[in-house]
Automatic annotation (TrEMBL):
The keyword Heme does not apply. Residues 23-171, 191-319 form the Allantoicase domain. It comes from Actinokineospora auranticolor. Keywords: Hydrolase, Purine metabolism. Belongs to the allantoicase family. One of its GO terms (biological process) is purine nucleobase metabolic process. It catalyses: allantoate + H2O = (S)-ureidoglycolate + urea. It holds the Pfam family Allantoicase. This is Probable allantoicase. Its EC number is 3.5.3.4. GO terms for molecular function: allantoicase activity.
Length: 335
């Protein structure tokens, strides 16, 4: 995607491969000029001219040597969030005379924690088949496959440099690794989704339900400053129907821009909204935890912040209902 090009709708979905979500580049056949780990960094690629190391000009990406024999270069990424891939971006930003002419992206689903040799022996499903690449461009490719994958392989035809590999999609958790009686029902890694949001001027609301704590303010959700009488809000579709027992509203890192107050509302399906948490004052840079009295089955939660501001994380701890547990298993089986 170049300047002025509208990104595909799936680009708003989580990057399943991101290092922020514990993704890892577990193998590559070459990284002579720039290390493979750069492929999945969350930050946008940077470039400083005339900066040299023993490998040559420093590039913020993965770059292999110039091939003098037939063959291709490969890197295998373990997805931090296994799931259904909706699209991939092979980002060649800052690579102008040294980008690959084409690439292939493949994927596989493997249980447990396989070694690189075991992964190389797997049967790989092609998601993007030998597509042309442009230099200094976010090359976007749609993926039409509804299977759940745990690993992706990027193949360069034949060699060159790629700044970032983004693998956007829907996380799908393995029910065998989840306790249905005690989980974060909103968690991105378990299948929680942001389905609506009033404003995401500074950062995506996907950050709210991402794994782990936010390490900086930019890893939370922050809205623009309001100059009217309304307030900002976000709606989360839970991983499956459940009963929420505790809520965590975390304003860590937000000091002069935390919301003043917040409320939580819930609903089941398309039903009426009911109150989970009354309007409650929030403190800056604080991890707030609240016990909830409502015991109704819930599928969606709306967080309202007053009037605007930023929040690091939203956690909604509880238990799946029998209906929710059945749905959780169905989603996994169908992918």
């Amino acid at each position: 995607m170049g300047a002025g090009v509208t990104p595909p709708s799936w680009a708003t979905l989580p990057d399943l491969a991101s290092r922020r979500f514990a993704g890892a580049v577990v193998w590559s056949n070459d990284e002579t000029f720039a290390p493979r780990e750069n492929l999945i960094l969350a930050a946008e690629p940077q470039y400083r001219p005339a900066t040299f190391s023993h490998r040559g000009q420093v590039f913020d990406g993965w770059e292999t040597r110039r091939r003098r024999e037939p063959g291709d270069d490969h890197a295998i990424v373990r997805l931090g969030l296994p799931g259904v891939v909706r699209g991939v971006i092979v980002d060649t930003t800052h690579f102008t005379g040294n980008y690959p002419p084409a690439c292939t992206v493949s994927a596989c689903a493997v249980s447990g924690y396989p070694s690189p040799d075991e992964l190389l022996a797997e049967d790989w499903t092609v998601l993007v088949d030998h597509c042309a690449l442009r230099g200094d461009t976010r090359n976007a490719y749609d993926v039409d496959n509804t299977r759940r994958f745990t690993h992706v392989r990027l193949t360069l035809h034949p060699d060159g440099g790629v700044a970032r590999l983004r693998v956007h999609g829907d996380p799908v958790a393995d029910p065998a690794l989840v306790d249905p009686n005690g989980l974060d029902l909103a968690a991105l890694g378990l299948g929680g989704r942001i389905v609506a949001c009033s404003n995401m001027f500074y950062s995506t609301p996907n950050n709210l339900i991402s794994p782990g704590p936010a390490s900086v303010m930019g890893e939370g959700w922050e809205t623009a400053r309001r100059r009217d009488t309304d307030n900002d809000w976000v709606i989360v579709r839970l991983a499956a129907e459940g009963v929420i027992r505790f809520a965590e509203l975390d304003t860590t890192h937000f000091t002069g821009n935390a919301p003043g107050w917040a409320t939580l509302s819930g609903r089941a399906g398309a039903g009426e909204w009911f109150t989970l948490l009354d309007r409650t004052r929030l403190q800056p840079d604080t991890r707030h935890r609240f016990a909830l009295r409502e015991t109704e089955p819930t599928t969606h939660v709306r967080l309202d912040i007053y009037p605007d501001g930023g929040m690091a994380r939203l956690r909604l701890h509880g238990a799946l209902t029998p209906v929710g547990e059945a749905e959780f298993h169905r989603v996994f089986a169908e992918s």
